[in-house]
Protein 1
Amino acid sequence: ERIENAVQRLGAMPADATKRHKPDILNKLISLLGQPETGDVFYSSVGRALAAWAPKDEEVAGKVGAIATSWSENNKEIPKSIVEYLISNGSPEVALIIDSMWIKNPETWSEQYQSLGAEAETRLIFHVADSPVAIKKSAAGLLRRIGTAKSLPALRAAKGKGDAELDQLLNVAITTIESP
């Protein structure tokens, strides 16, 4: 509990605070992510602390991305603060991490998927073509917001498979993408 409180205080530090122990603190935060089953609230606090202490740090983001990828491969829930940290650092792993979380719970992870913009389009096109209907519906909604002409063939091909609601969502996505 003492460590968790300290991590929360680190995450709340103002951006202009003196950070002379920054390397040691970052190493400790990364090592805390490696501790087994500490808890989602704790990991969320670590993610917020990382955002405060290493907002644009490729090296730290790479280490955090590797840990998050491992969690994703082991079907472990990844706190949004960790994912948002990876998004803000342009981590190459983040698209696949978000995709694996989004498939399990599209409503919870759609905002993060959308924040990837065009980077997510190819994966969403795949889901429109080859996923269960509920995932196709969510993918169509996301493509309505971030899709480009690249999405149109897959959106058109997914129509007419017997689900009126899906067809409506696909039509809205197509119309929105085609609109100037």
Protein 2
Amino acid sequence: RVVNAGLIAVSGGNGANFNSALFFNGAHLSCSGLSVGAMASSNTIAISGLGTQARLNGGDIRIGHSQNWGWPSDNRLIISDGAQVDQAGEIVIGQCRTYKDECDRRNSMLLKSGAKLHSKGVTVSDAGSREGVSTGNVLRVEGSGTFWNLTGGKLGVGYAGSGNSVGNTIIITDGAMVTN
């Protein structure tokens, strides 16, 4: 049991690659948000298993994001097998804030196998400032019994702003339910 943990961050800088935080089989987590792949690549947060719960207390979820430098790619958040995540703020998958041509790519979130999520909305690919490219980011919600409530927030893909947002995808399949 992890309580009042502040921000749970897996990788927090350029070169902080191939790291994981795994919460399984009845784990309980209370924190102020999740961050995976801040300016780094191939990092994972997994929340899985019936009875596993994460309460984010309004904190955001950021997957594959850069600020002034870094090229985050292949970072992922997996919520599966009946796990539940409550009180999440906004979710951003792929966020480009650099001047590089391709600054984030192939970051993903997977919600599957009866998992439950309550958040304030989601943006898949945010190239909202500078001149970077946010590409190939994916949100996938799958499986009967899988439920996501956006609590009135937006479901957006490909926000370009002054950058470019290319080839990003939202997939809802196999009986999953997303409500707003």
